[in-house]
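Field log, afternoon session.

UNIT: design team B
ACTIVITY: writing a sequence onto a fixed backbone
BACKBONE:
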């Protein structure tokens, strides 16, 4: 059943141009995200499709609500941070410029703008607390009060995460050593001169015997 739900959402989000239908689909997706396997969500690339619809003003808040649910799921830290950072923040900077005065925009903005900023705040807090280990209550309160730009907070925390290559460097090094130790080694060759002063090559498989002959 979960696959059928995701297939339906995928078809609508990837083909429809009807804003009302897209919003209804996002609302449906929001209600089922907690209860169906999350692996299928990425299998159908729904995150990319959601972000494509983020700039649509009627859909922005629904997309943010879905993202809040998604970041609360149990995903590998590297995956979730890279996906959210690369997809969501790229689209967000189009809607909310980096030089935007967020507290002022919230105070003078429409109810839709205020709702978008609030959902954005909750999304950032959920992402930082669930996947980037935000333990500082002062930082959390600053985000809640819009005293800092949440984009800067995410960029700072994401920059502290080691690249995938570094994360697996130690494991890969041990794996290389294991493979090398299991490789077939070339035969050691001992060159000797017989009593007739003829040069002869003898293959020596036993290293201990080779050391004795030397």
């Amino acid at each position: 059943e979960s696959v059928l739900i995701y297939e339906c959402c995928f078809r609508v989000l990837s083909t429809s141009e009807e804003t009302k239908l897209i919003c209804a689909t996002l609302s449906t997706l929001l209600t089922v995200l907690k209860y169906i396997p999350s692996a299928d969500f990425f299998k159908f690339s729904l995150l990319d499709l959601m972000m494509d619809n983020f700039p649509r003003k009627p859909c922005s808040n629904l997309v943010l609500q879905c993202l809040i649910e998604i970041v609360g799921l149990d995903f590998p830290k590297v995956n979730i941070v890279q996906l959210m950072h690369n997809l969501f923040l790229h689209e967000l900077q189009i809607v909310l410029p980096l030089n935007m005065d967020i507290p002022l925009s919230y105070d003078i903005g429409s109810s839709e703008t205020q709702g978008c900023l609030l959902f954005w705040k909750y999304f950032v807090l959920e992402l930082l607390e669930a996947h980037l280990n935000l333990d500082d209550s002062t930082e959390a309160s600053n985000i809640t009060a819009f005293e800092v730009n949440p984009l800067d907070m995410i960029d700072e925390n994401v920059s502290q995460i080691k690249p995938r290559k570094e994360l697996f460097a130690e494991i890969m090094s041990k794996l290389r050593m294991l493979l090398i130790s299991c490789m077939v080694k070339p035969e050691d060759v001992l060159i000797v001169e017989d009593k007739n002063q003829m040069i002869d090559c003898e293959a020596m498989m036993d290293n201990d015997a080779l050391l004795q002959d030397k």
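LOG NOTE: Residues 2-167 form one domain.
NEXT ACTIVITY: expression trials, pending approval
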